[in-house]
Amino acid sequence: MLKVYTKVGDQGKTKQVTGKMVAKYDPQIQTLGALDELQSWLGVTVANLSPACQGLEEKLIKLEREMYELQADLVVKRHHTITLAEVTYMEEQIDAWTEELPEMKEFILPGGSKTSANLQYARALARTSERVCVLYADESGEVKSDSLKYLNRLSDYLFVMARYANLLEGVADVKSKPARPRRRPKNKLAN
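Predicted structure:
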């Protein structure tokens, strides 16, 4: 029987794929953890898709698989699965969805529908993953430029997908500023 626990990390260290023991706060480990958190939240999002958003399931599972490959790209020197093709795919999908969306004239808040809110949270996790990965790249010099481009585009992709989910559900985006009440004209007779 394969045991889930190894006890290797009981003292605050973990083993890299190379066999080297490093602190659990090592930039590579932090990056892998941030991507794992994002990948897990994408799973939560898929599990909670509304009926109107079921068409997004395949795209989200694709992202989950890409997170797995991206983690391998970051730790295995000769592993290079995430390329500019994935970045181009996201850009083309962003453009297609944007054509269907109402024009955005101001900032919006995460929310609207449950699916949109989940996707906005995934977007925030993608941005965290990108920041941690950039730190790892700066310190190690070992992160492929395609990986950084992919993570940068991913948050845009999830943002637009969240807006698209609201569209699919017939729910308006939540504007960042409340609607201003209409001013009543002053009654000149009251003076």
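Summary: Helices lie at 27-47, 57-75, 84-100, 114-140, 145-169.
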